[in-house]
Amino acid sequence: MTITTDFTGKTVIVVGGTSGINRGIAETFARSGARVAVASRSQEKVDDTVTALTEAGAETAMGVAFDVRDADAVAKGLQQMHEALGDFDILISGAAGNFPALMAEMSVNAFRTVVEIDLMGTVHLMKAAYPLLKRPGASVISISAPQAFLPYEGQAHVCAAKAGVDMITRTLALEWSPEGIRINSVVPGYIADTEGARRLAPTEQALEMVRRNIPQGRLGAVQDVANSCLWLASDLADHVTGQVISVDGGLYQRGSGQLGQMIGQMLRSKSGG
User: Fold this and answer.
1) Domain span holding position 188
2) What is the number of helices (H) and of strands (E) in the chain?
3) What pLDDT does 1 receive?
4) How far is CA 149 from CA 75, 137, 158, in A?
5) In this structure, are residues 11 and 85 in contact, taking their beta carbons and an 8 Å threshold?
6) Whole-prediction pTM value?
7) Minimal CA–CA distance to 39: which of 61, 57, 10, 7?
8) Which of 108, 148, 226, 233 is the most buried (most CB within 10 A)?
9) Is the predicted pLDDT of residue 41 greater than 80, yes or no?
10) How many Cα neighbours within 13 Å face the side chain of 225?
């Protein structure tokens, strides 16, 4: 059976959409004929991505540079997109920050930075986007992480922030469903050739350990995550909301396991502990 997903005439907003998984999501929607707008802090990355989206076949492509930690900047940027493209059919919330650090050695400001990007950035985005979403029919997707439900050593800041993101997903599914707005979270597995995979599994030995622990026997691809977003944004998932969906080849069924331990051991080794 062949399934084709056509987003011609749809407006797709991808925040954090100029690199990694999020850029892959934006380019996938562009290839499906959508009008696509991206946002990140770097104007240079925004401009480069807009060019790539146009080349990929987007009906229209545009971008705005803003920092999700700045609520006013988020609201202003989304308003620019709305004026140019109309109501948002699909909103991807993908801005994130992460670095490995043991809690005892992490500054309060470092912890706060991740919370401001991951959690408060989500709050700013949801509040600013709410009046701009298509009713009925909008699909909102947050790009989450396994740290939302699995404890990892060296990841207390991310665990706290991403758990909040997923609870926002669940709560807004209750609040927004009567208006015909669906919201879900997607949790990528270990995705090959991404900054996140390199940060948490920085050596070939670590990456091979991760690969051995994935029941499907391979690292994920950016396209795997993008495909899940296409499905969630389509009419095929019309009765799906408030869900946290892992795209991981079965990895997280094993918990944080050896990888979580490895991160802690690596950090203690660096600190001499």
Assistant:
1) 11-271
2) 10, 7
3) 45
4) 30, 29, 11
5) yes
6) 0.93
7) 61
8) 233
9) yes
10) 31
